[in-house]
Amino acid sequence: MPPTPTPAVDSAGTKREVRRRGDVVFSGSALAAGIIILLVLAAVTLFLIVESIPAFAGDPNETQFLNGTPFLEYVWPFVFGTLWASVIALVVATPLAVGIALFISHYAPRKIAAVLGYIIDLLAAIPSVVYGLWGALVFSQILKPFYVWLNDTLGWIPLFAGAVSPTGRTILTASLVLAVMILPIMTAIMREVFLQTPTLHEEAALALGATRWEMVRMAVFPFARGGMVSGAMLGLGRALGETMAVTMVLSATGAVSFQVLTSNNPTPIPANIALNFGEAYGDGVNVLIATGLILFIVTFAVNALARWIVNRRAEFSGAN
């Protein structure tokens, strides 16, 4: 065991603990890292606000991309596309992440759980451009027959109505690719939270005659509720900011439509920036930066909402 710090006595006769050099260096480094994070965030925020002013204050008739349209009216379809694609991805990925994390932590044998956990973690290391190529060239072609069947069977539902895209590169395809991309990080967080459930809670539920699923529902889920929300919101944050995969998969048109099988697809903000930045000049660059500011605000709002939910539910969590 390391030696206990020797208390020192000052001139007034009171004892004070002598801090070691390593403790001082570590605490100072941690403080500096926290300050740097805040400074970088402040610098990014200031840059976005300053560079966005011409887009808000300029003449829409003389600004590239606006073409006489007020900025907020111009950016609204892209905000809709960002939220719509991310919400679909989250709805698809969340139950899969919960199921996989639960299987790894409570159902699979140890060897299988280790291999499956490694495979899931490996998905996070695949570059987004690879996901984009796979989604555009392979996955979209696989989904086309399914889209036709979905349209024929459930076409009476507005989501699946309309003419099916002949390429398969729809907002639903882009969202499914996003779901695959955010699945590893969501699964990893939920898996670790499930593993931290107190063993006594689980054994007590089983001792009272609960089945394995009842034990999970009564002991694991209440304890892990905050971590599950955090994992889902972290995945949503990545989906909101994903650029290359969506740009390569989606046949973007900038429309506002809830139909997920047609060629008339909404455009997320990151894809709009990636598609137009190469030809932007003058105030057009400021317009794209301003759309980035809107995305920054949306992402910040989502993370703030997630933190509020976690804090609000913490007092009811089994962790307490």
TrEMBL record:
Keywords: Cell membrane, Membrane, Phosphate transport, Transmembrane, Transmembrane helix, Transport. Part of the binding-protein-dependent transport system for phosphate; probably responsible for the translocation of the substrate across the membrane. This is Phosphate transport system permease protein. Belongs to the binding-protein-dependent transport system permease family. CysTW subfamily. It holds the Pfam family BPD_transp_1. Residues 79-306 form the ABC transmembrane type-1 domain. The gene is pstC. Its main location: membrane. The chain crosses the membrane at residues 24-50, 74-103, 115-134, 171-190, 243-261, 285-306. It is a multi-pass membrane protein. It is found in: Cell membrane.
